Amino acid sequence: MIVPGSSSQALASALATELNKPLAAVTYDQFPDGETLAAVPEFDGDRAIIVATTDTNDTWVELLQLQDAVIEAGATEVITVIPYMGYTRQDRAFKSGHPVSARAMARAISPTTDRVILINPHERSVADFFDGHVTICDAASHLAESLPSGLSEPLFIAPDAGAIELATAVRDEYGTGSTDYFEKTRHSGTDVDMNITDTNVSTRDVVVVDDIIATGVTMSTAVGHLNDGGAARVYIGCIHPLLARGARTRLERAGIERVIGTDTIEREVSAVSVAPTVAAAIEAVDIETR
Ligand code: R5P
User: Fold this and answer.
1) Rounded distance, CA 105 to CA 113, Å?
2) Most buried of 32, 161, 190, 208, CB within 10 angstroms?
3) pLDDT band at 160 (very low <50, low <70, confident <90, very high)
4) Ligand 1 cavity residues, CB under 6 Å
5) Range 2-138+274-289 has CATH code 3.40.1160.10
6) What is the spatial distance between Cα 212 and Cα 241, in angstroms, rounded to a whole number?
7) Per-residue pLDDT at 174 exceeds 90
8) What is the pLDDT of residue 223?
9) What separation in Å is there between the alpha carbon of 218 and the centre of ligand 1?
10) Active site amino acids
11) Domain 140-272 -> CATH class
12) How far is CA 201 from CA 85, 159, 168, 170, 226, in A?
């Protein structure tokens, strides 16, 4: 059975359709003291495929509860799909005395799952924090599906060197265009510097591609440079449209044509589903273990 976390109900439903598997009824409750209770009252199956984005502390707890609940209900195999794994940007102890939060989260959920499937985690090395087998899926190319045809001299640009592979994947799927990236220096959560690219963007359509849009500061800084350079239209695409802290307004004010995200985080801009990518990963696991 496919078991949805509260933040991944549409994606879990799309995955159930892709795999032709039943979708479990899940209840999500909260006690007066703030404690959450996610339960699967009618779970019936040997294998549970839990699909749960962990973008908040509550959804992390829900995931732990769902893992425990399906085992309690008789599941003998648990696959945990984490479409967007929160805390992955805390993948190092940045200062003395700081935790490696991504590792702490991975350790918490490892004992109650047989496998984990992640979609474009911020760093692939986060897979090493889990005890068991981890599959990493790359959904970037699907962002091209939502771009209009006939972009003018398209440029696919990453806001930093780390995202160039994402921009290249979108360009390859789109079928035409060049790629580039900005040099970015982050000073704080809301302060980034970006060097202007030497590439001429005048009258060109530009697609900026990143893994996450959180505050939108990175993207809006990039969009500002591109508009200053005379770009015709600027589209922005990301795998994980977190869109926290007024990001949507920040992006609109920067002058974008459109935001395109996937449904790893369910937002109004989630035009692209990663369900086919996750289904293919699960089918590959089945073939591997047969
Ligand atoms: C950083 O390396 C990431 O790839 C994203 O660029 C970053 O997380 C975006 O954050 P924000 O939207 O807050 O600038």
Assistant:
1) 13
2) 208
3) very high
4) 89, 159-160, 162-163, 210-219
5) no
6) 6
7) yes
8) 96
9) 6
10) 184
11) alpha beta
12) 34, 15, 17, 18, 7
